[in-house]
Amino acid sequence: MEPVATLQLVLLLAVANGTPVLAKRLLGSRGAWPLDRGATFADGRPLFGASKTLRGIVLAIPATALAATLIGLPWEMGLLTGALAMAGDLLSSFVKRRLGLAPSSRALGLDQVPESLLPLLVAKNTLGIGWADVALGTVLFVAGEIVLSRWLYRLHIRDQPY
Prior knowledge:
This protein is an all-alpha fold. The chain has one domain. Helix content is 64%, strand content 0%. It has five helices and no strands. The longest helix is centred in the N-terminal third of the chain and has 25 residues, at 3-27. It is globular, with a radius of gyration of 15 Å. It starts with a helix and ends in an 8-residue tail after the last helix.
């Protein structure tokens, strides 16, 4: 088991997923163009929804790369982690729209697992972490996201407590 690498990856996941939230709070509606540009899927529902913005993706990926260098990982690992976390977040939003859930609605597990599991699976091979590390990282991210979201809501950084 590689607990240090696992914690580093969970920290990178927090940066990747927290950057769009902070950007929204700091920038308001500036640059908040919906990534799907209002496109709908065959079911007539939005592809991702208005809460998934180009700004969030564009800022999250380099922020995660920078964070990686600050904690002793290669910037490329941060770039990949950020990109995969955002891909997982988009996947969960896509699935939530297919289920008829509104943007920013809560879906425990679906909101956290894809955006943590995808980067951790890639890191398994890249950083040599094991399956136990992947599972631990996913559990830590899910639990941390639940606790941190409520805290950020109380600080008026998040719009929703989840």
